[in-house]
Amino acid sequence: MIVAEHLVKQFHRRAVPDGPASRFRSLFAAREAVRAVDDISLAIDKGEIVGFLGPNGAGKSTTIKMLTGILVPTAGRVEVAGVVPWRHRRRNALNIGVVFGQRSQLWFDLPLRRSLEAIRDLYSVSAADYRNRMSQFDDLLDLGSFLDTPVRSLSLGQRIRGDLAAATLYRPPVLYLDEPTVGLDVVAKVALRDLITSLNVDGRTTVMLTTHDMDDVEQLCQRIMVIDGGKMLYEGDLKDLKRRFAPYRDLIVTPRSPSDADRIDSGLATRVSSPGAAKVTLRFDPQEVSAPEVIHSVSSQFEVSDISILDPQLEDVVRRLYGGNP
Amino acid sequence: MRAALRGTAAMVRLGAQSALHFRVNVGISVVGACLQAVLLIVVWRNVYANRQTVQGVGVDIAVQYAILSLAVAHLALPFRLSSLPERVRQGAIATDVIRPIGVTSQNLAHSVGEAAAALPGSVAVLIVGCALDGISAPRDLWAAGFFVLSVGLGLLMAWTMNLTVSMVAFWTTDTRGTFYIYRTLATFCSGAIVPLWFIPEWLAHMLNALPFRLQIFAPLEIWFGQVTYDHSKQLLIQQASWLAVLFLLLHLVARRALRVVVVNGG
């Protein structure tokens, strides 16, 4: 559904020199090339939800803008639903929906209803479909409660919900979500995730999601791609990512007697919690030693009131990946 | 085709709704236009206080010209020439680019909508003109019909040029300097400020080669019956031809501009 090969986007900026009259001298300074996206290839099948991750400035949004046809690639090939986005922008527009968390496609001064009516007419949505989908939006996003409020008066959560409704009103087969949950409260995030899941399950909508929220990724994405410095760092499923970049599990032990806390240890695992902590964390590699073995080793030496096993947090895994610290 | 028309109509509606949403602003614009009409009538009548004609133009024609040109210029050269530069600056252009009708069609349709919302100002100017005895009927029904057609073509020319100039925003982001020069040129050369009868011959030759005079001055020449029936038709053909050229120019500039789109921020 989405194919990109050796995608490159290069911008040119005039360097501002230091020292006196720097602004004036910058007029004559050479322009330097900055590669925001550097040789990225990717393929996403119909009906997939893919998380597109990376630190700030990694090139995620630039890649999305090339895939949506907003930006023209400096080099490389892009095809979305059989259309080269930047070359056939109008045909491409009918295939895609886009939500940018940091900018809105709604008309700022008008009530949300006016924007959705305009989208209905721009994408030739029939009156019956419009009614049905608005009813669905009302159920999932509680849109009815702020439909007649001017967009500029909406809260961030309401505005994003309105944007998501606008991007999916005409049921595009491909949906790009660029940081849609940034700044949202838990309720709004859940509503958004529910709608995305529903669109993906019912309509086999292909979703490419850019986010810094690892809960979004864990709950929605079947596969993730991680980029940094404009280059692809990782592509694969979540389990594999954790296996490769965080090959450990944590055993959390609460001793019955607090005085045992600093003494608890197991020759099979490494203690990672700091001294004095009421709960002890023992880290082990499940490839080398099984969880029951570590539990048995601890419980045979000490009386334990609680014990649990934690998988590595995706956030930690991604942090290691961004930091180049596998 | 039907889908494109429906989408274009939606953009016209949005343009009008966005402009009419701020009712106080609409009211102030109407009052401002009326004030301008009254001042123009007073000044022109004062200019003619001790003379019958100036360069062969009588006071009635001069006053009527001032009112009609103000009414047309209110639509052709609005305070905000286009919303495009603002959208480029804020990055909202990103969403315009990915809509199923082109950026130029969206913006032109939006301008038509905004002009529809500015109509009360033009109508108010005409009412003030009539109330102060400043407007008389055109020569005949043909002149009236040609005038309406010519105003329509002139407005389309103006909106197309406004949008073409606005496209500079794709390269410079800030368009204030460009707009200042363009507005000065357009208001003067179209005859929106001073009737082109009063300009020196050498300058008139230059202006004849430009499209501006066809936006406001040409329709008014038809209204006043200062051109023959055949010449009126020629003016309409000239307007249509220029419009085609301007559309082509807009298309070329837009194509180039959309290749250099930079969307600020993430």
3D structure, described in words:
- The complex is a heterodimer of chains A (326) and B (266).
- In chain A, a hairpin with an 8-residue loop joins strand 11 (270-271) and strand 12.
- Chain A has helices at residues 22-26, 60-68, 89-95, 112-122, 127-141, 156-168, 186-203, 214-220, 238-245, 291-299, 314-322, and strands spanning 2-14, 31-44, 49-53, 75-80, 96-100, 174-178, 206-210, 223-228, 231-236, 249-255, 270-271, 280-284, 304-310.
- The radius of gyration of chain A is 25 Å and the shape is globular.
- The model of chain A has no long low-confidence stretch (mean pLDDT 86).
- Chain A folds into two domains: 2-236, 3-Layer(aba) Sandwich (Rossmann fold); 247-322, Alpha-Beta Plaits.
- Chain A is built from eleven helices and 13 strands.
- Chain A is of the alpha/beta class.
- In chain A, the strands form three sheets. In chain A, strands 5-6-7-3-8-9 form a six-stranded mixed β-sheet, with helices on both faces. A four-stranded antiparallel β-sheet of chain A has the order 11-12-10-13, with helices on one face.
- Chain B has 266 residues and is an all-alpha fold.
- Chain B has one domain.
- Chain B contains twelve helices and two strands, in the order H-H-E-E-H-H-H-H-H-H-H-H-H-H.
- Chain B is globular.
- Chain B starts with a helix and ends in a 7-residue tail after the last helix.
- In chain B, 46% of the residues are buried.
- The mean pLDDT of chain B is 90.
- The chains are: A alpha/beta (326), B mainly alpha (266).
- Chain A binds chain B through residues 11, 56, 60-61, 65, 68-72, 89-90, 92-94, 96, 98, 100, 102-105, 107, 109-110, 114, 117-118, 120-124, 150, 178-179, and chain B through 2-3, 6-7, 9-11, 13-14, 17-18, 21-22, 90-92, 94-95, 97-102, 258-259, 261-263, 265-266.
